[in-house]
Amino acid sequence: MSQPPLTARTQAKAERRGVLLQSAATLFAQRGFNGVSIEDLGAAAGVSGPAVYRHFNGKQALLGALLVEVSEDLLAGGRAVLTATLENGPSLRALIAFHVDFALCKPDVIRVQDRDFDSLPDAERGAVRSLQRAYVELWVEVLGRLFPDRPIAVRRVQAHAVFGLINSTPHSVQLHGHPEATARSVLENMAWAALTGV
């Protein structure tokens, strides 16, 4: 069944919601969840504080939407990568490139996840964990096809270790001023070596 066409009003509402999510990512990354008020979020998005409640039930709901949606995007993107690349070596390289791109494009979200995950409501915390476990399993599956003798527990540890390496990018790039192209290349090569031993 097809979706009804967007009206100007629903499109404007969707755009405002997107601006609120982006503003929340920026402010939460800079100040932490507890250092940001509803009024701060509204001002950053160009609306009054109370107008935020037209889109979200509160600050915690906004944090939940931010981290659940980015986790959904990560899983969907990883699945799309594996659908587009059928050979195992290129699939792993494509997954690495996809995750590096995510880290470079969404550094604020990574900071928020690292620092404010425990501020999520229980339901959203469970949803994020479930989505992220499914994402890890994409990597575990590809590694299993490349290295069938490698135990599954080892493959999971390797995937998590590589995520840690790549997700540290927002901190390392900011601290050391590496150009993005250099950071991208170095991270992709390091992740490949960590996962394959080559």
From TrEMBL:
The keyword DNA-binding applies. Pfam families: TetR_C_24 (PF17932), TetR_N (PF00440). GO terms for molecular function: DNA-binding transcription factor activity; transcription cis-regulatory region binding. SUPFAM superfamilies: Homeodomain-like. It comes from the Bacteria. Keywords: DNA-binding. The keyword Kinase does not apply. This is TetR family transcriptional regulator.
